[in-house]
C-alpha cells in the first residue's frame, strides 16, 4: 500500500498547486453533510410507524445523539489522530476518512433496517464521527504548505467546502428520501446507502488527486518574509506536544471557543427568533436559515482570505468588536421593527462565525509554524466540541427559561444575546493577549521534512508550478 | 489555467452550485415575506 504513503504523493513539476484545494473541497463537502442531518430527524422517529411515531419508535432526543456523538467524535479523533495525519499525509488520511465516514453511513443504514438504535449510534456517531475528524484536518497542513504566501485563503477553501457540504447534504437527503419512500419505509436507510456511495466517489477523487509539495518547494518568485518583518508570523516550528504547553495554544482555544459558542447559539435559534421577535411565519424562519447557510459558507472563504491582508490577530479583533456591536443591535432591531436589519445583522454574524473556523488554521501556522500544524489544529478543535455544548445552552435554555418565567417572547432572547456579547469580550481579551511563542518551545529536531521552506535556509524552489 | 485544474474546479463547483441553488430557493420566502405587509409583532411590555 505504498502508493498511499506521504512519500508516494510528492508532487512532480507538472502539478499545479491550484489543484490541491479541489481535492480538499471534494472531501470537505462530503463530510459537511453532518450539518444537514436535521432533515433525517423526523423520518427517523417514524421508522416503524411511517406516517406517525409509534411508542416503539425512537424519539427526537434519541435521534439527536447520532448527530451529537458524530460531532464529539470529530473533535476527539482530530485531537487523537492529528500526529498520525501529519505522518501519513493527505491521501492515506482522506481514504481513511472515506472508509470511516461512508462506512458509518452504511452501518447506520443497516441499523435503521434492523431498527437497532445502538448500531445506528455506532455507525453514524462513532465510526462516521472518526471519519469527520480525519477528513476535517486531512488537507489543512498540506494547504498551508502549498500556499505559504496566502495561508488564510488556502484554509478558507477547505473549510468553505465543509460549509458547502451542509448546503448539499440536507437537500440531497430530502431528494433521496422522497425517491425511496414507500408504504413500508421512510427511505432513510436507502438514502444513507446512496449518499455513502456518492460521497465515497467524491472522497476518493479527492484522495487520489491530492499531492504534497516537495521539501523546499515554494511558489515561484516568493520568498519568506524575514522574521523581523512580522513577529506575529513565526519562521520557526513548534511540535504538537509542545504547543499545548504554550499559553498561545490555550488563548487561541478560548478565541475559537468563544467565537463559535456565540455563533452556534444564533445559528440554531435564528428561525425561532425571527418568528418570536417579529411575528414572522415559519416559512420565513426557514428562509432565514437557508440564507444563513449561504453566509456561513461564503464567510469562511471571504474572511479567511481577508486575514492574509489584515493579519490573523487583526481579523479576530474585527470578528469580536463588530460581532459585539451586532449582537447588541439585535434587541434594538426588534424595538424598531427592522426585520431586514435583523436579517442583515444575523447574516454578518454567521459569516464571521464561519470565518472564525476558517481563519484558525492559518493563525496556528503563524504561531507554531507548519511542522505539525495539522495535529495542533486537531487538538484545538476540542474548543468546537466545547462550544457545541455552551452555545445552545446559552441561547436555547436561557431563552426557554425566560419564556417560562413569563418574559414576553419578543424579549426572551435579550439576556442570551447579552451573554453572547460577553463571550465575545472574553474572546477579544484572549486574542489581544496572543504574543509570539517563546523560543524555548521551538522545535530543534532534524526531521522537518515537509515543513515550510523557511525552515531550511537556502532551500531552492523545486517541484511543482505555482 | 491548466485545463486539468479547470476540470477539477468545475467538478467540485457542480455539487456546490446545486447546494447553493437549493439554499437560495429555501431563502426565497424570506424575501417575499419581508416585502409583504408585516404582521404586527408581539407587543412590548410598557
What features would you describe in this structure?
The complex is a heterodimer of chains A (466) and B (46). Chain A has 466 residues and is an all-alpha fold. Helices cover 69% and strands 0% of the residues of chain A. Chain A has helices spanning 20-31, 41-44, 60-114, 117-137, 140-146, 151-180, 188-209, 240-243, 247-278, 282-310, 312-336, 339-368, 373-380, 382-404, 414-432. In chain A, 58% of the residues are buried. With 46 residues, chain B is mostly helical. Chain B contains one helix and no strands. Chain B is rod-shaped, with a radius of gyration of 20 Å.
Give the tags:
heterodimer; A: mainly alpha; B: mainly alpha; 1 helix; rod-shaped
Summarize the entry for a quick read.
By secondary structure, chain A is mainly alpha-helical. Chain A has 15 helices and no strands. Helix content of chain A is 69%, strand content 0%.
Lay out the secondary structure.
The complex is a heterodimer of chains A (466) and B (46).
Chain A: H1 20-31, H2 41-44, H3 60-114, H4 117-137, H5 140-146, H6 151-180, H7 188-209, H8 240-243, H9 247-278, H10 282-310, H11 312-336, H12 339-368, H13 373-380, H14 382-404, H15 414-432
Chain B: H1 3-35
Measured by residues with Cβ under 8 Å of the partner chain's Cβ, the largest interface is: A-B, 46 and 33 residues
The ordered H/E elements of chain A are HHHHHHHHHHHHHHH
Outline the biggest β-sheet of chain B: none
Task: Return the structural class of chain B.
Answer: mainly alpha
Fraction of residues in helix of chain A = 55-70%
Q: Strand share of the residues of chain B? A: under 5%
- Inertia-based shape of chain A: globular
**Stretches with pLDDT under 50, minimum 5 residues of chain A:** 452-464
Q: How many angstroms separate the termini of chain A?
A: 29 Å
The counted number of beta strands of chain A is 0
Amino acid at each position: 500500500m505504498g502508493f498511499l504513503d506521504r512519500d508516494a504523493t510528492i508532487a512532480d513539476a507538472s502539478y499545479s498547486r491550484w489543484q490541491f484545494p479541489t481535492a480538499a473541497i471534494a472531501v470537505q463537502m462530503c463530510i459537511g453533510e453532518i450539518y444537514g442531518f436535521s432533515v433525517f430527524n423526523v423520518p427517523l422517529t417514524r421508522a416503524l410507524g411511517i406516517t406517525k411515531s409509534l411508542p416503539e419508535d425512537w424519539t427526537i432526543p434519541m435521534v439527536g445523539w447520532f448527530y451529537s456523538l458524530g460531532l464529539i467524535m470529530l473533535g476527539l479523533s482530530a485531537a487523537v489522530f492529528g500526529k498520525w495525519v501529519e505522518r501519513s499525509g493527505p491521501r492515506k488520511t482522506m481514504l481513511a476518512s472515506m472508509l470511516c465516514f461512508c462506512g458509518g453511513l452504511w452501518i447506520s443504514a443497516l441499523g435503521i433496517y434492523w431498527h437497532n438504535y445502538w448500531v445506528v449510534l455506532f455507525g453514524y456517531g462513532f465510526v462516521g464521527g472518526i471519519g469527520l475528524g480525519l477528513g476535517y484536518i486531512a488537507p489543512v497542513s498540506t494547504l498551508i504548505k502549498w500556499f505559504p504566501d496566502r495561508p488564510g485563503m488556502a484554509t478558507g477553501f477547505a473549510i468553505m467546502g465543509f460549509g458547502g457540504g451542509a448546503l448539499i447534504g440536507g437537500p440531497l437527503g430530502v431528494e433521496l428520501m422522497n425517491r425511496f419512500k414507500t408504504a413500508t419505509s421512510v427511505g432513510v436507510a436507502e438514502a444513507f446507502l446512496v449518499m455513502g456511495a456518492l460521497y465515497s466517489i467524491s472522497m476518493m477523487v479527492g484522495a487520489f488527486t491530492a499531492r504534497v509539495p516537495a521539501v523546499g518547494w515554494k511558489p515561484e518568485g516568493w520568498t519568506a518574509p524575514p522574521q523581523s518583518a512580522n513577529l506575529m508570523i513565526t519562521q520557526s516550528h513548534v511540535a504538537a506536544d509542545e504547543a499545548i504547553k504554550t499559553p498561545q495554544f490555550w488563548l487561541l482555544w478560548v478565541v475559537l471557543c468563544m467565537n463559535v459558542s456565540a455563533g452556534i447559539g444564533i445559528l440554531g435559534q435564528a428561525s425561532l427568533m425571527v418568528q418570536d421577535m417579529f411575528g414572522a411565519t415559519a416559512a420565513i424562519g426557514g428562509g432565514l436559515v437557508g440564507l444563513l447557510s449561504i453566509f456561513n459558507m461564503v464567510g469562511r472563504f471571504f474572511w479567511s482570505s481577508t486575514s492574509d491582508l489584515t493579519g490573523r490577530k487583526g481579523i479576530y479583533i474585527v470578528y469580536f468588536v463588530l460581532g459585539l456591536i451586532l449582537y447588541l443591535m439585535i434587541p434594538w432591531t426588534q424595538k424598531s421593527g427592522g426585520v431586514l436589519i435583523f436579517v442583515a445583522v444575523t447574516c454578518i454574524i454567521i459569516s464571521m462565525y464561519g470565518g472564525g473556523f476558517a481563519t484558525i488554521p492559518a493563525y496556528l501556522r503563524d504561531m507554531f509554524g507548519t511542522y505539525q500544524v495539522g495535529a495542533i489544529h486537531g487538538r484545538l478543535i476540542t474548543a468546537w466540541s466545547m462550544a457545541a455544548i455552551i452555545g445552545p445552552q446559552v441561547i436555547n435554555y436561557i431563552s426557554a427559561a425566560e419564556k417560562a418565567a413569563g418574559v414576553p417572547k419578543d424579549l426572551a432572547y435579550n439576556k442570551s444575546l447579552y451573554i453572547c456579547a460577553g463571550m465575545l469580550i472574553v474572546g477579544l481579551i484572549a486574542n489581544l493577549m496572543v504574543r509570539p511563542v517563546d523560543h524555548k518551545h521551538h522545535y530543534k529536531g532534524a526531521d522537518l521534512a515537509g515543513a515550510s521552506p523557511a525552515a531550511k535556509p537556502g532551500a531552492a524552489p523545486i517541484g511543482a508550478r505555482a | 489555467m491548466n485545463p486539468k485544474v479547470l476540470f477539477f474546479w468545475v467538478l467540485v463547483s457542480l455539487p456546490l452550485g446545486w447546494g447553493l441553488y437549493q439554499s437560495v430557493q429555501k431563502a426565497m420566502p424570506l424575501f417575499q415575506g419581508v416585502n409583504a405587509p408585516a404582521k404586527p409583532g408581539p407587543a412590548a411590555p410598557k
